[in-house]
């Protein structure tokens, strides 16, 4: 066994022991930063609580609504080298807020080049039909230009990344740390 990860699972995901250690170290490093950031927060309502963190397990939507939940989830995805989905989803959320048609056209092209186009730097996993539809939509972009791809990506995160996050050492360590803090006082 490699910590909590069995050897066959490590091989299945093409992870070696060094990858596992890096992932754990990233999680521990992130936990230290989170704890420092949360404990320095002056206002009690802006601190992360055990209850808030436990609510992240209710739904992906609940997790993404929390600024600390989103930050933790993004860090988890980066540790797995699979952060393109959350980056795309967040970029689409920002895109929907654009009012200027000039800015919308420019941003739509950037999103297409970065996330949608085949072989793009952060290519998302969507079907050919959706990719081609977006390619056409980008020529005359609207607020809904990326909606279908965003739904697909959200579904992938909800079915795949989110359950792994809830089982991750990163999330478990955060819960344990907050539970220990709560019991102390």
What features would you describe in this structure?
The protein has 185 residues and is an all-alpha fold. The chain has 2 domains: 7-81 and 162-184, Regulator of G-protein Signalling 4, domain 1 (Orthogonal Bundle), CATH 1.10.196.10; 84-157, Regulator of G-protein Signalling 4, domain 2. It is built from 10 helices and no strands. It has helices at residues 7-12, 17-40, 50-55, 60-65, 67-79, 84-95, 101-116, 128-137, 147-167, 169-184. 24% of the residues are buried. Residues 1-17 have low confidence and may be disordered.
Features:
single chain; 185 residues; mainly alpha; Regulator of G-protein Signalling 4, domain 2; 2 domains
Write the layout of secondary structure elements.
Blueprint lengths: L6 H6 L4 H24 L9 H6 L4 H6 L1 H13 L4 H12 L5 H16 L11 H10 L9 H21 L1 H16 L1
Helix pairs in contact: 2-5, 2-10, 6-7, 6-9
């Amino acid at each position: 066994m490699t910590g909590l990860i069995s050897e066959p699972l490590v091989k299945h995901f093409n992870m070696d022991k060094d990858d596992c250690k890096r992932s754990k170290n990233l999680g521990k490093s992130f936990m230290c930063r989170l704890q420092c950031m949360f404990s320095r927060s002056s206002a009690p309502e802006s601190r992360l609580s055990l209850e808030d963190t436990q609510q992240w397990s209710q739904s992906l939507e609940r997790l993404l609504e929390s600024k600390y939940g989103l930050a933790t989830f993004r860090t988890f995805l980066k540790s797995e080298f699979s952060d393109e989905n959350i980056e795309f989803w967040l970029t689409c959320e920002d895109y929907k807020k654009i009012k200027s048609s000039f800015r919308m056209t420019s941003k739509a092209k950037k999103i297409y080049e970065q996330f949608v186009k085949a072989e793009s730097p952060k290519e998302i996993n969507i079907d050919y039909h959706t990719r081609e539809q977006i390619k056409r939509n980008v020529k005359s972009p609207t607020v809904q230009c990326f909606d279908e791809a965003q739904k697909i990506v959200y579904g992938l995160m909800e079915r795949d990344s989110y359950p792994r996050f809830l089982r991750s050492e990163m999330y478990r360590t955060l819960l344990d740390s907050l539970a220990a803090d709560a019991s102390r006082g």
